[in-house]
């Protein structure tokens, strides 16, 4: 960064169009990656002293602008001194507050946009359950707070959010790693600075933390020192937003010419040289070789000489040029007016209330435009990078998408269609076969869970028990009626139709069992046919009983001849009513029979085994025919409810049909809206509820008299003659 600033200044000083006849000087201080040293350095610049421990900003200095620092925490302290400052790497959204930081500008976008971009990225890939770790400073805390706020609005849940301080002990960092490893989230959003990321990775290596999809912030996502074999097992496949990379013409040649002899007093440059070439400028008896000074940077390959990923360095370059353009604008402001010229002193050129830096708008040689908004921020554009391997096996940062905050809402985030490498070290994701699903590590296809209403599960067991109980109860009622078959009550109830009705009710209860269990070709056809015919027989019996009651009381023929006339008609009525349903079912089975199918549309992670109706028309015709019989029966029973009889069966038939109709009217919306095996459960419930309703409404009053009130089981009582005698 420092060498890039020097390169830019030398370019400006050689320029004949930008600041002609003006030389720009500089001083470079090392912030040591800490707030205190950077603050001391700034105080020295402000007070005109290189070394100072003063705590005020009241001094005078020839320094008109500060480029830096790299960290938001240090930048916050410097900006309070109201000296013009332009940062290349401080991203905290808090620095956009013009009331508190009116003199602050930057060439890197605010985290206000990056945090929201990360939330959209996580949503785009369908990751709704993530973990989070952040630096315990302004950068991490503000950035993560904004991310969590945006993620929550997108329907994303954050399992945990851990913080790592720069001064955190080894044990504290290891505790964070344990939280991450014990969590169930497989996606980790890391809003970390350099140093905190280094500490986290060292602890992750010691605890063998793998199998996570890392989502990174711009601070580390393109850090070359992390893209090594040491960390590749942890970070390979990482994805995150980075500052757009650029090319700076001439910078590489400038960097390759760097040599300690250029500035013998620069101790940092000597340290860099010694570490790069493994030598020492100090004579010693140790094995370290002596630096000769003839070493050349052209002969080695390291991050310093690699200009293929100029991202933050380009921000430094832009910051220096922004200062130069502001100075140039100020110097030109008074060329045509002496009065104006007098007010355009060099001291005032970069005051925050002045418009020169605010109005800066220029293009670099690369074509990139540089300008600031009212908050001192640049345009928020990012590149989405993914860690992949090149043919040589080295980690490279591949651009797979972009984010531009200036675009229309909802269109800021775009993918460029390139393949993405995930942690699983798969170069591209592929769809599992239809009957398979990805495992928890997303590196293998495993069979999907098959879902159907089985006898073993609780719901299936309960429905089976109710079905068998209903069938058993119906058989008990049949036995009671058979035992009292010669009594007036059973005879008056039309014993032939009563036994046939009880038989059909038994079939209704038992047909529900065909809906339980794994669907097969035969069970799918049997369940709907059995259901349709059993209920058609049941309702036909009730309809015939109702018609018989009405005819018996309305007929003008002598009473002793009525049963003989109706015996044949009621059998024909039952057979005819059932035969039409049988005919519909035969046509249905012949043209488009129900069949088992695997439904993978409703739930992606499981297969729902169900019976396809084959023809929805067939099913609704069967159901509609039963409904038609029930409506006719309800109307006739309602009309016959006031016939003169102590035991008017039409009343009980009316109640039974009301319950029957209510159950099946409710069934239709529930059936249509219920998913998977619950569709089957709803149909079984409707069958059982309507069957129990018919059984209790029609036969419970009769069993009550047969078993508990035998004195009422007389012909006179049934015909109402007991009441007439008492009167």
Automatic annotation (TrEMBL):
<feature type="transmembrane region" description="Helical">
    <location>
        <begin position="496"/>
        <end position="517"/>
    </location>
</feature>
<keyword id="KW-0297">G-protein coupled receptor</keyword>
<keyword id="KW-0675">Receptor</keyword>
<dbReference type="InterPro" id="IPR000068">
    <property type="entry name" value="GPCR_3_Ca_sens_rcpt-rel"/>
</dbReference>
<keyword id="KW-1003">Cell membrane</keyword>
<dbReference type="GO" id="GO:0005886">
    <property type="term" value="C:plasma membrane"/>
</dbReference>
<keyword id="KW-0732">Signal</keyword>
<dbReference type="GO" id="GO:0004930">
    <property type="term" value="F:G protein-coupled receptor activity"/>
</dbReference>
<dbReference type="InterPro" id="IPR017978">
    <property type="entry name" value="GPCR_3_C"/>
</dbReference>
<feature type="transmembrane region" description="Helical">
    <location>
        <begin position="462"/>
        <end position="484"/>
    </location>
</feature>
<feature type="transmembrane region" description="Helical">
    <location>
        <begin position="652"/>
        <end position="672"/>
    </location>
</feature>
<dbReference type="InterPro" id="IPR004073">
    <property type="entry name" value="GPCR_3_vmron_rcpt_2"/>
</dbReference>
<dbReference type="InterPro" id="IPR001828">
    <property type="entry name" value="ANF_lig-bd_rcpt"/>
</dbReference>
<keyword id="KW-0807">Transducer</keyword>
<feature type="transmembrane region" description="Helical">
    <location>
        <begin position="574"/>
        <end position="591"/>
    </location>
</feature>
<feature type="transmembrane region" description="Helical">
    <location>
        <begin position="684"/>
        <end position="707"/>
    </location>
</feature>
<feature type="transmembrane region" description="Helical">
    <location>
        <begin position="529"/>
        <end position="553"/>
    </location>
</feature>
<dbReference type="InterPro" id="IPR028082">
    <property type="entry name" value="Peripla_BP_I"/>
</dbReference>
<feature type="domain" description="G-protein coupled receptors family 3 profile">
    <location>
        <begin position="459"/>
        <end position="722"/>
    </location>
</feature>
<keyword id="KW-0325">Glycoprotein</keyword>
<keyword id="KW-0812">Transmembrane</keyword>
<dbReference type="InterPro" id="IPR038550">
    <property type="entry name" value="GPCR_3_9-Cys_sf"/>
</dbReference>
<dbReference type="InterPro" id="IPR017979">
    <property type="entry name" value="GPCR_3_CS"/>
</dbReference>
<keyword id="KW-0472">Membrane</keyword>
<dbReference type="Pfam" id="PF01094">
    <property type="entry name" value="ANF_receptor"/>
</dbReference>
<dbReference type="Pfam" id="PF00003">
    <property type="entry name" value="7tm_3"/>
</dbReference>
<protein>
    <submittedName>
        <fullName>Olfactory receptor C family, h1</fullName>
    </submittedName>
</protein>
<dbReference type="InterPro" id="IPR000337">
    <property type="entry name" value="GPCR_3"/>
</dbReference>
<keyword id="KW-1133">Transmembrane helix</keyword>
<feature type="transmembrane region" description="Helical">
    <location>
        <begin position="617"/>
        <end position="640"/>
    </location>
</feature>
């Amino acid at each position: 960064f420092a060498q890039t600033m020097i390169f830019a200044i030398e370019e400006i000083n050689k320029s004949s169009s930008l600041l002609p006849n003006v030389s720009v000087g500089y001083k470079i201080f090392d912030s040591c990656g800490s707030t205190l040293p950077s603050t001391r350095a700034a105080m020295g610049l402000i007070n005109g002293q290189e070394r100072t421990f003063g705590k005020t900003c009241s001094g005078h200095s020839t320094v008109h602008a500060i480029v830096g620092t790299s960290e938001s925490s240090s930048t916050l302290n410097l900006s309070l001194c109201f000296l013009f400052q332009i940062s290349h790497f401080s991203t905290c959204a808090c620095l956009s507050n013009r009331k508190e930081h009116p003199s602050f500008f930057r060439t890197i976008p605010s985290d206000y946009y990056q945090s929201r971009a990360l939330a959209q990225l996580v949503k785009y890939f369908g990751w709704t359950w993530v973990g989070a770790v952040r630096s315990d400073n302004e950068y991490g805390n503000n950035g993560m707070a904004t991310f969590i706020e945006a993620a929550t609005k997108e329907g994303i849940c954050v399992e945990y959010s851990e913080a790592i301080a720069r001064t955190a002990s080894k044990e504290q960092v290891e505790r964070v790693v344990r939280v991450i490893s014990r969590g169930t989230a497989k996606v980790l959003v890391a809003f970390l600075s350099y140093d905190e990321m280094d500490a986290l990775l060292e602890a992750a290596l010691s605890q063998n933390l793998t199998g996570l999809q890392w989502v990174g912030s711009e601070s580390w996502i393109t850090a070359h020192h992390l893209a090594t074999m040491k960390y590749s097992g942890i970070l390979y496949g990482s994805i995150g937003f980075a500052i757009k990379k650029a090319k700076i013409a001439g910078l590489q040649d400038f960097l390759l010419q760097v040599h300690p002899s250029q500035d013998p007093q620069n101790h940092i440059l000597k340290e860099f040289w010694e570490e790069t070439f493994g030598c020492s400028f100090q004579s010693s008896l140790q094995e370290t070789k002596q630096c000769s000074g003839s070493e050349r940077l052209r002969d080695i390959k390291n991050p310093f000489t690699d200009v293929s990923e100029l991202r933050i360095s380009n921000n430094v370059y832009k910051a220096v040029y922004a200062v130069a353009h502001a100075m140039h604008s100020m110097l030109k402001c008074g060329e045509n007016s002496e009065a104006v010229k007098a007010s355009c002193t060099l001291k005032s050129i970069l005051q925050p209330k002045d418009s020169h830096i605010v109005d800066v708008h220029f293009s670099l040689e690369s074509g990139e435009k540089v300008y600031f908004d009212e908050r001192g921020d640049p345009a928020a554009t990012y590149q989405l990078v993914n860690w992949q391997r090149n043919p040589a096996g080295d980690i490279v940062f591949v651009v797979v998408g972009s984010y531009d905050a200036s675009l229309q809402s909802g269109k800021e985030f775009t993918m460029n269609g390139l393949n993405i490498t995930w942690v699983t070290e798969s170069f591209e994701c592929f769809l599992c076969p239809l009957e398979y699903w990805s495992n928890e590590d997303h590196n293998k296809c495993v069979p999907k869970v098959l879902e159907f209403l089985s006898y073993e599960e609780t719901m299936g067991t309960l429905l089976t028990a109710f079905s068998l109980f209903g069938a058993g109860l119906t058989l008990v009622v049949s036995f009671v009626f058979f035992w009292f078959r010669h009594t007036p009550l059973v005879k008056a109830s039309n014993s032939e139709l009563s036994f046939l009705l009880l038989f059909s009710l038994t079939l209704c209860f038992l047909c529900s069992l065909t809906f339980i269990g794994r669907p097969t070709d035969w069970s799918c056809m049997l369940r709907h046919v059995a259901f349709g015919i059993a209920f058609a027989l049941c309702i036909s019996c009730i309809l015939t009983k109702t018609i018989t009651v009405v005819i018996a009381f309305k007929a003008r023929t002598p009473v002793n001849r009525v049963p003989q006339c109706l015996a044949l008609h009621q059998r024909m009525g039952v057979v005819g009513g059932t035969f039409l349903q049988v005919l519909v079912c035969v046509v249905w089975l012949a043209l488009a029979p129900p069949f088992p199918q695997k439904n993978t549309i409703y739930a992606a992670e499981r297969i729902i085994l169900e019976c396809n109706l084959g023809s929805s028309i067939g099913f609704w015709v069967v159901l509609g025919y039963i409904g038609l019989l029930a409506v006719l029966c309800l109307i006739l029973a309602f009309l016959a409810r006031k016939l003169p009889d102590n035991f008017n069966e039409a009343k009980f038939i009316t109640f039974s049909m009301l319950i029957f109709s209510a159950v099946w009217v409710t069934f239709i919306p529930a059936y249509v809206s219920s998913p998977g095996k619950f569709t089957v459960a709803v149909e079984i419930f409707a069958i059982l509820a309507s069957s129990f309703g018919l059984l209790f409404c029609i036969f419970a009053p009769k069993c009550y008299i047969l078993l508990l009130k035998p004195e009422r089981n007389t012909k006179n009582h049934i015909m109402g003659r007991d009441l007439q005698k008492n009167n």
